[in-house]
User: What shape does this take?
Amino acid sequence: MSPRTILVMMLALVSGISAVVGVRRVIGNSDQTPKVETVKVVVATQEIAPGDMIQESSLKIRNFLKESVPAGAIDKIEDVAGRASFVPIAPDEPVLASKLAPKGVGGLEALIPIGKRAVCIQIANVAAGHAGLIVPTNKVDVLFTSNDQGQDDSSGGGATVMLLQNVEILAVDRRLYVSSDTKTETSEIRSVTLLVTPDQANMLDLAQNKGILHLALRSRKDDLTADTKPALLKDLRFQQEKPSPPPTQAVAVEPVKARVADPLRIRTLRGRSTGLISFPAP
Assistant: This one.
């Protein structure tokens, strides 16, 4: 065997040993890589409306990184199925304990806080003035119109007062929740359910038996109490709004140019020579 062959074999052997050592180091480093810890979380597979009883078919388990699990997350489907949600839950959204009513409580009951009452106003045209745009979670003011013409009536035959302010709508007809793609026809609206206190419930019951109720839709950003006074029929008979004054039109005025006085000139004579002396204007 020639020296050159022996040298080539030795180089090949050294290269093989180096490769084996390198592979072992890579494997050793991979064993030291920290493992990512995950936690099982129950999420919705479809949109869940407030008040609806949640079915097992609407749930699934998804793995979340342990540090990204939201507070109140539930890890077992059986702990969610058969309970109602207080709020809408979107697909793939974690189902939290704070969003769920106790087992056995569903429908409208699940949305009524302790100390509140749900009162249904059963008047066909109660929301007709809003072209079907009133939906659950809206805030409204309740207007009461009385046509009492008793002997001691000082209103002149009728009056309208703002009976309640900033009241939340729980349901429109039987709808507890209206998604963005749901269309509500005005002609189909027959009742509106309001979330009120027990005292307000008494007032609503008396008012809808003694007069007419209407709703005034409020902005979601407006939670201030309006300072209103009753509108009396006797006042409306002589009430006439004055027309708004026309907008003031600006008149273009040309700037006045200051008149510059002519300078004072004096002609002089000296023999046959003449001259001109100018003085600035005073």
